[in-house]
Task: inverse folding
């Protein structure tokens, strides 16, 4: 027991002495919460509008004023023709353009259709849709308030003017009423942090010992391989929990991210995930004695998939079939599901038993395989 | 490699080339570095480009129809008919829908109350309820837009049917027609791939540089070099040059993959893109160099680089538009070189921009390059004070 | 020759509260084999790092080949060679590539360089292994190679930091023969070591204890003055009195 404690102490001292790595381990999750919470947004606001008005008249001016007054749009340029529009889009100076057909007010007065061409920079597909909706809303607003009675518009997303059918949709966003993006990222962030600490740091720590040759000394000591692993790895698990706690607290304070469900359950599942990540780290270290290769392997096998394929940032439903299948073998995917369920939906084991089972099975299999390969390799 | 005599003559150039040559040999002999520079980026590019999408494919929807009338069934059919929604269940009570929601099986529950049709006929108005499953994120907002579109289209259609006189007056109205430029297929790949390329090239440039120099520090070969007459400038050039070239090569391969595999457009001048890339990479590499002066081991180099890059990448407009971010993030991103290069890449590749259109961000990049390089050079000292 | 190869006056270096090198004063004549003895941590490596321009002195002064270490460190680097304690050639490059690299760095003319490489390989009996990666060489060969590379550009002074650590006695003997050859050719050699028996091979030595010079002179003089039979005995006595 003393030998194990000695090893734990040495490992802890080593970690504390490497201040830069420690700083990153602790600061990274904290900074990430802020970054993810604020940067991954899809709001429509401050839209830069270019107006192409070849023949301005009372109506076009009135409509242009409405856009200026809308609060959503900011007119950045008024052009006479489409010619300069390309350059504006390419410079990112404008995001949407509205182009009035010539003789606008005239056409309306004579009962002819007057067209407004809405040109969106569709480079980013989703924002194009959002902006279009807002443009239509402004046009509709103009029509609803316009003195010309009975004038209607053929725009699919219109609320109706007089005489039309109106269907009002009451929308409620369940589990995340404010659509706060932090709510969605925190579970994934937890998985990410745990992965770094449990898989990457473990793999690095064990291979470093191998590289410097001190691993042999450890093996010759009265410590059993299992104890060596525990001794080297336990401090990182503690750091992992501290990081996760920091993430949860910060998310709570800054973004009011809830934990609707049971905290012990969440921590328990977290522990399960740690076991999985640990086993992967041990497996990696068993197969190589070079720190750099271990680093690469850990990144490829754990960090990248957690980042990209677990549903952390990009929804799994948006991925092609093949990747959706692959994501099934990513432990992070299951943990993210579980964590989201507990934190946002407040559900418990009753709904999560399947996911928990999968995670548990992964942990079991990986633990067995990794400890055995560790043993074999060093003998 | 045969270098013309004229260039070989200065001892300075010779020193730089000798070290750069050794550097290149290192890279090609080190499996780990090669993997990092070639295999990892390509794998990342392939997976990431496919995975990174916020597009809605088929959102599962449950309809709670408490009305059972022709109108309610018609609306339900509308939802099933579009490609966006996947009707997974219909019920006349809320409970099963709720279950499905809790289980995470549906993105949206549409509830039509039992006076739906009656209300439509009598009041020309009705109410429906949309319950969005917002656990999955930004998808919720988009699902809502589509759902609203369908509902309003339905309202417009039955309005036209019941009020034919109104429709004849439609001819005097305002017609809005929309057109999306640069991305006719509304492909998310076209938006993401240029950004991803930037990210990968950045990671290679900065990370490998930082690790490389940190490793020399760790092993002790850096000390040996510091004892030689080689100057700071020569050392830095010799270190950065091979990786600058490699990163550019990576960009070429990445662009090829982007074009042939993902069909990313190449509307603008590739030469211009590479010019911008060349400038950008100086910044990226200089940041790696600067990081290497702050750390002592390779592991630290990796962690610190990761930390710094993550901040840059997330605020660069890579995944989501900078315009959607809060004001203070937008301001901060002005000093983010990644942001500028992402803007430039998209402008050139997707929108076909020319030099004049990217002049501003390009100028910013050049300025950063000068500043960061100067800082890094100043920071690097052959003699420890 | 008029100029001293190395001269140090009250050379001092502190790291925070810790004084690694404490007002050392000594000089080395050109062509001498000068030994810097002392236990690990006595300050030998720090002293060498100051003299090679890697570390700035906190106070005091030193000159190497006439150049001041504080203000002219880059000039010093042109005329010195250095072999560090940690092996400092590139493991994954071949023998030949390593030598070529340093040949390029010191701007040795190409034809001249080719000759020197062949002679070097010959002398070390490494001609067959010239295109093998350095990491495949046994330790003794690596050390000898590192030494030869340090001499490649015919420096005026060469600094060797614990060059014979971990090698067998035969290789150690060969190493010292190489040192003598270099000295005979006019190169000044400053060697640090914690092997006290190697003191006998030097013209003059200093023994450093806790950053200070505790003994300075020829091995014979020092032994006689202290009344001991070997430098080792002298060192033990000095170390005990400092403790």
Result:
């Amino acid at each position: 027991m003393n030998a194990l404690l000695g090893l734990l102490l040495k490992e802890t001292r080593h970690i504390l002495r490497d201040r830069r790595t420690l700083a990153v381990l602790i600061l990274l999750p904290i900074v990430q919460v802020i970054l993810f919470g604020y940067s991954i947004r899809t709001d429509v606001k401050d839209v830069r509008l270019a107006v192409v008005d070849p023949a301005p008249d009372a109506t076009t001016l009135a409509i242009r004023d409405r856009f200026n007054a809308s609060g959503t749009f900011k007119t950045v340029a008024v052009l006479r023709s489409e010619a300069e529009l390309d350059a504006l889009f390419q410079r990112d100076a404008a995001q949407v353009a509205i182009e009035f057909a010539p003789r606008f007010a005239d056409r309306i007065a004579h009962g002819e259709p007057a067209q407004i061409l809405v040109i969106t920079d569709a480079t980013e597909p989703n924002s194009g849709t959002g902006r279009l909706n807002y443009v239509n809303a402004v046009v509709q607003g103009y029509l609803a308030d316009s003195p010309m009675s009975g004038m209607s518009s053929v725009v699919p997303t219109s609320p109706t003017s007089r005489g039309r059918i109106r269907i009002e949709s009451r929308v409620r966003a369940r589990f995340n009423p404010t659509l706060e993006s932090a709510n969605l990222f925190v579970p994934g962030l937890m998985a990410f942090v745990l992965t770094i600490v449990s898989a990457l740091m473990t793999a690095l720590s064990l291979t470093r010992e191998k590289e410097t040759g001190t691993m042999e000394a450890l093996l010759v000591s009265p410590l059993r391989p299992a104890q060596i692993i525990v001794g080297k790895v336990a401090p990182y698990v503690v750091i992992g929990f501290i990081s996760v706690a920091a993430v949860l607290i910060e998310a709570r304070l800054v973004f009011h991210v809830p934990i609707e469900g049971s905290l012990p359950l969440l921590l328990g599942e977290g522990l399960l995930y740690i076991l999985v990540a640990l086993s992967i780290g041990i497996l990696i270290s068993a197969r190589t004695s070079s720190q750099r290769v271990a680093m690469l392997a850990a990144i490829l096998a754990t960090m990248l998939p957690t980042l990209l394929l677990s549903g952390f940032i990009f929804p799994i439903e948006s991925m092609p079939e093949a990747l959706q299948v692959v994501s099934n073998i990513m432990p992070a995917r299951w943990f993210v599901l579980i964590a989201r369920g507990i934190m946002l939906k407040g559900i418990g084991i009753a709904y999560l038993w399947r996911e928990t089972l999968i995670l548990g099975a992964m942990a079991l299999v990986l633990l067995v395989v990794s400890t055995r390969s560790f043993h074999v390799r060093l003998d | 490699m045969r270098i013309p005599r004229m260039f070989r003559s200065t001892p300075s150039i010779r020193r730089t080339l000798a070290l750069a040559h050794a550097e290149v040999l290192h890279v090609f002999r080190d499996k780990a570095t090669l993997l990092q520079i070639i295999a990892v980026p390509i794998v990342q590019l392939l997976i990431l480009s496919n995975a990174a999408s916020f597009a809605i494919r088929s959102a599962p929807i449950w309809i709670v129809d408490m009305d059972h009338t022709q109108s309610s069934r018609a609306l339900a059919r509308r939802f099933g008919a579009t490609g966006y929604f996947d009707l997974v269940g219909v019920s006349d009570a809320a409970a099963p829908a709720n279950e499905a929601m809790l289980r995470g099986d549906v993105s949206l529950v549409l509830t039509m109350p039992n006076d739906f049709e009656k209300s439509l006929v009598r009041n020309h108005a009705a109410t429906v309820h949309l319950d969005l499953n917002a656990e999955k994120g930004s998808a919720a907002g988009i699902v809502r837009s589509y759902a609203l579109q369908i509902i309003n289209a339905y309202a417009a259609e039955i309005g036209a049917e019941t009020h034919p006189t109104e429709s004849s007056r439609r001819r005097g109205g305002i017609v809005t027609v929309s057109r999306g430029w640069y991305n006719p297929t509304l492909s998310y790949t076209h938006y993401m791939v240029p950004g991803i390329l930037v990210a990968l090239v950045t990671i290679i440039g900065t990370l490998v540089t930082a690790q490389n120099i940190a490793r020399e520090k760790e092993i002790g070969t850096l000390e040996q070099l510091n004892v030689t007459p080689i100057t700071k400038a020569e050392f830095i050039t010799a270190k950065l040059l091979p990786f600058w070239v490699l990163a550019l090569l990576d960009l070429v391969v990445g662009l090829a993959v982007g074009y042939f595999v993902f069909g990313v457009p190449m509307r603008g001048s590739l030469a211009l893109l590479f010019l911008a890339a060349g400038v950008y990479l100086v910044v990226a590499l200089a940041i790696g160099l600067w990081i290497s002066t702050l750390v002592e081991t390779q592991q630290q180099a990796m962690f610190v680089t990761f930390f710094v890059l993550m901040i840059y990448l997330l605020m660069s407009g890579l995944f989501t538009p900078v315009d959607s971010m809060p004001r203070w993030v937008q301001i901060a991103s002005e000093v983010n070189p990644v942001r500028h290069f992402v803007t430039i890449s998209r402008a050139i590749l997707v929108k076909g921009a020319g030099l004049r259109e990217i002049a501003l961000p390009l100028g910013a990049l050049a300025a950063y390059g000068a500043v960061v390089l100067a800082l890094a050079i100043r920071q690097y000292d052959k003699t420890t004070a | 020759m008029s100029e001293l190869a190395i001269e140090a006056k009250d050379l001092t270096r502190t790291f925070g509260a810790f004084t690694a090198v404490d007002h050392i004063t000594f000089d080395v004549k050109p062509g001498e084999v000068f030994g810097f003895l002392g236990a690990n941590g006595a300050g030998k490596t720090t002293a060498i790092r100051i003299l090679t321009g890697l570390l700035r002195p906190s106070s005091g002064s030193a000159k190497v080949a006439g150049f001041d270490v504080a203000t002219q460190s880059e000039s010093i680097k042109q005329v010195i060679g250095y072999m560090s304690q940690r092996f400092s050639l590139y493991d994954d490059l071949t023998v030949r590539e390593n030598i070529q690299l340093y040949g390029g760095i010191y701007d040795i003319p190409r034809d001249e360089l080719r000759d020197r490489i062949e002679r070097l390989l010959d002398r070390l009996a490494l001609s067959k292994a010239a295109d093998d990666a350095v990491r495949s060489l046994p330790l003794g060969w690596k050390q000898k190679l590192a030494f030869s590379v340090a001499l490649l550009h015919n420096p005026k002074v060469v600094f060797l930091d614990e060059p014979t650590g971990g090698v067998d006695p035969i290789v150690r003997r060969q190493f010292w023969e190489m040192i003598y050859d270099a000295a005979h050719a006019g190169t000044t050699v400053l060697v640090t070591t914690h092997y006290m028996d190697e003191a006998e091979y030097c013209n003059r030595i200093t023994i450093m204890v806790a950053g200070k010079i505790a003994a300075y002179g020829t091995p014979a003089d020092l032994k006689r003055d202290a009344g001991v039979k070997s430098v080792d005995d002298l060192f033990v006595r000095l170390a005990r009195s400092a403790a």
